[in-house]
Design brief:
The complex is a heterodimer.
Chain A: H1 2-13, H2 15-33, H3 38-42, H4 45-52, H5 62-88, H6 93-119, H7 124-148, H8 171-199, H9 206-209, H10 217-244, H11 250-272, H12 278-312, H13 320-327, H14 331-357, H15 367-396, H16 401-427, H17 438-470, H18 476-480
Helix pairs in contact in A: 1-2, 2-5, 2-17, 5-6, 5-10, 6-7, 7-8, 8-10, 8-11, 10-11, 10-15, 11-12, 12-13, 12-14, 14-15, 14-16, 15-16, 16-17
Chain B: H1 2-17, E1 39-42, E2 45-49, E3 54-58, E4 61-64, H2 70-82, E5 87-89, E6 92-97, E7 114-120, E8 128-130, E9 135-137, H3 151-160, H4 168-176, E10 223-224, E11 227-228, E12 246-248, E13 259-262, E14 278-281, E15 290-291, E16 295-296
Parallel strand pairs in B: 12-15
Antiparallel strand pairs in B: 1-4, 2-3, 4-16, 5-6, 6-7, 8-9, 10-11, 12-13, 13-14
Classes of the chains: A mainly alpha, B alpha+beta.
């Protein structure tokens, strides 16, 4: 009993244990339900999985299933970010505990009962528990906003290396607070139309209605919701990475106000699609996205400079190659900002190119082609966020030496190969016709399967390693139980 | 050594992506025995329309039991060019369209009255050939659905024979009958039900040209050279209402220049073969996975 109690305390009461559980849940869900996706259907694996696990998949409910699947993974990611925020920023113990209890129970309920409802018949009790889970996460978000209140004098800072107001308000904390508040508000943009459409189970995927010229306010709201939630998860992980790397100095002072401004304007733009401002909403979104992305760029410039300085300060006259070597020496710390840069190729670049050339190119193709680009670019962004989380996770579990190098570079290479191939796949119609595309498609699919497969194998190794560790009486977990991320911020 | 092997594998994979595709690879000469000139009567009455099963009513109409074949379309072109309805200009067959009402809605294309392309003639995927005087069909494709045809070209064919393209509602009713099935033949889909992406039918080669069209009415329960098909006709006896080629329908929404396509195709995964699934494209779009069939309203 003591054996179980100790492990339970680690897994559900410590920061690193909670993150481990959430990462493991996502890994299991991704691996299992990934077997139902397109390529797996091609190989016949989907049919076998459905038969063995006695799934009840009604054709008309596919969109509903996918929506629940997306939500269950997203809630676990939000839980991970919440654990990171509550471990990194100062807050009262009561809030820290309450937020963690609510978000943990919430995401586990969403995952278990949501997927049970979606894939194994319609037991309405499961649906109710799924909604309860979502509601708990919402309340956790509200409490987190209260906990992060930046105008509490206890949280004022005096260190002039960090962005702060004249009175001492921690501007970085204000950025976290702004992101948390706007996330809670943006949840409404999904919850309200979700209640409306879900009431009659008239569900739809945004990419299927995107071309229709006349969309209802609630349809716009759904489209806005999915865009802003992913953007906010990305903004939050950028802030978390900044804290992890101990982002400071002049770049920090410039970045944090931009992050706040960008976050607010971006939200106003996305909320605007569900208002009479819709015709200009996209322009507001571009205006909001620019400062947010600039802030991320400042983090990149600062961190790469820091890696170079730290890695070459023993040399009198470092060459370009010395600097380059120093910059990429630690893939787990270089990786997150590299992935943010890479995102410009897979997501932002594609999005901007599509917006500029929409009428000239993309709207002349069939809607199903446009749908590939739409779904592809946000799947790529989600995958990039996942790899950044895994890089931080690799650091927090103490990977060192060759293992750290192998894990870090494998994460970077496998995801970048897969996502590059995804991006070429999305854009293939620009340079190849339908009739002769098959060999190219096959090549890209090999690259995607190789990259994502390697990523999952890597994740599986880490999870199995951590699982084995749990069975050791003096395992690594015994040390992690009391460690907080704020104590491990880079110096 | 390991590095050399790994590099060689990656290089081979890269080279395989650059392999040329033979668009004229031989086509298995199967005859399903379904008459593409046959029509079926759809009675007036209510049915369940769309994914969420809205009850909608239609009048009675007749609809072709198969897609229009390449041979049928070639015959039409010969007749219509001869009588001056259509003209050949450059590498296109052109025909008149009276235009859409333009409402200046965002992203809307202005489809003006005038001559529009019905089919391209020199595209390597075009199976209808023109020798300067007559239209013929590439051997092996005679009983395959007509593809590489624009919405204008599909509409023009139907109108020439005093018919029209089906509305989306007419199309769905003909595919679904009066129950709520997701596929024309029932609730489940198997590889032998229809021609879709990687369905392992005798016409595809996923390492080269990929998925190709199958003869109209192919999935009728017959066995072709050892390949057993399931009888996949709709409740009213229509074939290929799921898979093979997307089918243009007539509907045009206000302020939306796209036209809808239904049924999924040889190039799409099975979920796109569900009856209510929509695709759309501007009316001047043509592709190797897009065809049509006609209806006659009383």
């Amino acid at each position: 009993m003591h054996f179980i109690k100790e492990r339970f305390n680690y897994l559900f009461k410590s920061t690193k244990g909670l993150i481990f559980v959430a990462v493991a849940m996502i890994a299991l869900e991704t691996a299992f339900f990934g077997m139902l996706s397109g390529p797996m259907a091609e190989y016949g694996i989907r049919d076998v999985v459905i038969r063995i696990f006695k799934m009840d998949l009604v054709q008309a409910e596919r969109e509903g299933r996918i929506i629940i699947l997306y939500h269950s993974i997203a809630m676990a990611v939000i839980a991970i970010e919440t654990y990171m925020v509550t471990s990194t920023l100062m807050m009262k113990d009561f809030y820290k505990m309450a937020v963690r209890v609510l978000v943990s129970i919430g995401y586990i309920m969403v995952m278990i009962f949501g997927m049970g409802f979606a894939y194994w018949g319609h037991n309405w009790v499961l649906h109710g528990l799924f909604i309860t889970g979502l509601a708990l996460i919402f309340f956790a978000g509200v409490l987190l906003c209260v906990a992060l209140w930046p105008w509490n004098t206890e949280y004022y800072i005096t260190n002039k290396d960090y962005a702060r107001s004249k009175g001492g308000v921690d501007i970085e904390r204000l950025a976290f607070f702004t992101t948390a508040v706007t996330t809670v508000l943006s949840a409404f943009f999904g919850a309200i139309p979700g209640s409306f459409f879900g009431n009659g189970f008239v569900v739809f995927l945004a990419e299927n209605v995107i071309r229709l010229p006349h969309k209802t306010t609630l349809q716009y709201s759904i489209i806005g919701h999915l865009h802003i939630m992913l953007a906010l998860i990305a903004i939050m992980i950028t802030l978390i990475v900044g804290r992890w790397l101990n982002f400071k100095g002049i770049w920090h002072k410039m970045a944090m106000p931009l992050m706040i401004l960008g976050c607010i304007v971006l939200n106003l733009g996305v909320w605007g699609v569900a208002t009479p401002l819709e015709p200009v909403a996209h322009m507001i979104i571009y205006v909001g996205a620019t400062p947010s992305m600039l802030a991320a760029l400042f983090l990149l410039i600062w961190s790469w400079n820091k890696f170079i300085k730290d890695g070459t300060n023993h040399l009198a006259k470092p060459t370009f190659f010395h600097k380059l070597s120093a910059m990429v020496r630690d893939p787990l710390k270089f990786g997150p900002t590299w992935q943010m840069l890479f995102m410009n190729f897979t997501t932002s670049g594609i999005g901007i190119f599509m917006a500029i050339e929409l009428d000239k190119i993309f709207r002349l193709w069939p809607a199903r082609e446009e749908r590939i680009e739409l779904t592809g670019h946000w799947h790529a962004l989600s995958a990039i966020i996942a790899t950044i989380i895994l890089m931080y996770y690799g650091d927090m579990v103490g990977l060192k030496g060759k293992t750290r190098q192998l894990y870090g570079w494998a994460l970077i290479f496998s995801s970048d190969i897969a996502l590059s191939a995804v991006t070429i796949f999305e854009m293939k119609r620009l340079f190849i016709s339908e009739a002769v595309q098959q060999p190219l498609v096959n090549g890209l699919m090999y690259a995607i399967d190789f990259g994502l497969g390697l990523l999952l194998v890597l994740l599986a190794f880490v999870m199995v390693w951590r699982l084995i560790d749990l069975f050791k009486s003096k395992g690594r977990w015994t040390e992690e139980g009391t460690q907080e991320l704020t104590d491990e911020v880079a110096i | 050594m390991k590095r050399i092997i790994l590099t060689s594998i990656l290089f081979a994979a890269f080279l395989s992506a650059c392999a040329p595709v033979d668009l004229n690879a031989s086509m298995p000469p199967f005859d399903p025995g379904i008459d593409p000139n046959a029509w079926v009567h759809i009675p007036a009455g209510e049915f369940f329309f769309g994914q969420y099963e809205n009850v909608v009513s239609t009048g009675s109409y007749e609809i072709m039991i198969t897609d229009v074949t390449a041979l049928q379309y070639a015959c039409y072109l010969n007749a219509a060019v001869a009588d001056g309805t259509l003209k050949v200009e450059g590498d296109s067959v052109l025909g008149y369209y009276p235009g859409d009402e333009f409402r200046s809605v965002k992203h809307e294309l202005n489809i003006k009255a005038g001559d529009w392309q019905y089919i391209p003639l020199t595209d390597p995927s075009q199976r209808v050939k023109f020798d300067g005087t007559r239209f013929t069909v590439q051997t092996g494709y005679e009983n395959h659905p007509m593809t590489m045809v624009t919405w204008f070209g599909a509409r023009g064919y139907c109108q020439y024979y005093d018919a029209s393209l089906p509305s989306e509602i007419q199309w769905e009713k003909a595919a679904r009958g009066t129950d709520t099935r997701p596929f024309p033949w029932g609730d489940e889909i198997h590889r032998e039900n229809a021609n879709f992406y990687a369905s392992r039918d005798p016409f595809e080669n996923m390492s080269s040209f990929g998925s190709r069209t199958s003869p109209v009415g192919f999935y009728n329960g017959k066995t072709y050279n050892g390949y057993l098909t399931l009888n996949s006709k709709s409740p009213y006896g229509l074939y290929d209402m799921a898979g093979n080629v997307w089918q243009w329908v007539d509907d045009a929404l206000e302020g939306f220049s796209d036209r809808f396509m239904k049924g999924g195709s040889k190039d799409t995964y099975d979920m796109n073969l569900r009856i209510w699934t929509r695709n759309s494209a501007p009316p001047m779009y043509y592709g190797p996975g897009v065809g049509f069939r006609c209806v006659k309203n009383p």
